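To the wet lab folks,

You asked to see what we're planning to order before we commit. Fair enough. Below is the target structure as tokens, and below that is the sequence we designed to fit it. If anything looks off to you, flag it before the synthesis order goes out.
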């Protein structure tokens, strides 16, 4: 199982290509893999919650400075 640091490292290896092709979109990553690209944070976070629940995963805006939020914040907003 990948840690959040692993997810960030995987993102950073793809960052230049993602910025060339998907600037401003949101990426959802889990286990060092791209799960999907989304038009908004809300869409990416909702899909992460649907697929992974409270597990750790990375949601990041391509081309923006990183912001870390605990899953509890997302779960509270999108959870049941």
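Sequence we intend to order:
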């Amino acid at each position: 199982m990948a840690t959040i640091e692993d997810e960030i490292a995987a993102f950073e290896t793809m960052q230049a290509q993602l910025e060339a092709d998907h600037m401003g979109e949101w990426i959802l990553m889990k286990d060092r893999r791209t799960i999907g690209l989304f038009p908004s944070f809300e869409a990416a976070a909702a899909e992460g919650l649907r697929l992974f629940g409270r597990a750790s995963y990375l949601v990041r805006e391509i081309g923006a400075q990183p912001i870390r939020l605990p899953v509890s914040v997302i779960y509270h907003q999108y959870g049941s």
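Structural context that might help your review: DSSP finds three helices and three strands in the chain. The radius of gyration is 12 Å.

Thanks,
Computational group
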